[in-house]
Structures are given as C-alpha cells and as structure tokens.
Design brief:
By secondary structure, the chain is an alpha+beta fold. 28% of the residues lie in helices and 28% in strands. It has four helices and six strands, in the order H-H-E-E-E-H-E-H-E-E. Strand 2 (48-55) and strand 3 form a beta hairpin. The radius of gyration is 14 Å and the shape is globular. 23% of the residues are buried.
C-alpha cells in the first residue's frame, strides 16, 4: 500500500486509499480470494519495487505502480502484460483501465504504446477509460 504513495505520478497515500475503502486487509482478502490476480516485482535486496493487479470479475486493470527509480526498465510493461494474460485466461476479451487524460502524464503514452485505445468515456475520478481488445485464441 505504501508503494502507491511513492510513485512519480498519480501517487495515492495509504490514508487516501483507506478513505476510498481500500485497506491492507481488504486488499489482502481480495488477492487471497483470487478476485484480484496480480504480480509484484522485488529487487535483489528484497524490496517491493512495483506491482500490477486486475479485477478478475470485470477485466479491469486496477493498478500498475512502480517506484520512480525503476521506471524505464521495462518492468511496468512486463507487469502489465502478466496481468493482461491473467485476465485473458479468466475469459476476458475486452480489458479496461482508467488513465489520466493529460498527454503530459507518462501513463497517457505508456498505455497507448501498448495498444490500449480510448473509449471516449471518463470515470468518476476524471480518468479516461482505455480498453484493450484481445482476439479469441
């Protein structure tokens, strides 16, 4: 939970997450139940440096977070691809996520470079909804 508050852009503190109903307990329970499949990245010193999780029931990529020192190494792309694979394995062919509509924010171009497209819709937080359509195997 702490790592989310340490990201370069879109940092959300533990207190802000709690106000949204996201606590270590609720998150752990959702991960343990399989509701939130995801992957983490640990460095050579055993420090958590990034993670990505999706919602198995909806096909939403819920979060991708990396420490700033780990950006630009391909870790975010790898974590995202792992979660996309897990959500596709769960039966989803349309995945979605919320992303800043501001082109100056790194995530704006990051997701688009990975093939995500705008739906033209925005969520309650003002984030633009992007989708990724995956062909059936």
């Amino acid at each position: 939970m702490t790592l989310r508050g340490l990201t370069r852009e879109n940092a959300i503190s533990v207190a802000q997450l709690a106000a949204m109903g996201i606590t270590a307990e609720s998150w752990s329970a959702a991960v343990a139940s399989g509701e939130l499949p995801g992957f983490v990245c640990i460095d050579d010193q055993g420090t958590l440096v990034g993670y990505c999780f999706g919602d198995k029931s909806t096909g939403e990529v819920v979060v991708l977070a990396l420490l700033p020192a780990c950006e630009g190494q391909g870790l975010g792309k790898r974590l995202l691809n792992l979660v996309v694979g897990a959500l596709v394995e769960a039966g989803h062919r349309r995945l979605f996520l919320g992303c800043s509509p501001d082109p100056s924010v790194r995530s704006y171009s990051f997701y688009r470079q990975q093939g995500w497209k705008s739906t033209g819709r925005f969520d309650k937080n003002g984030d633009e909804e992007l989708e990724l359509l995956v062909a059936s195997p």
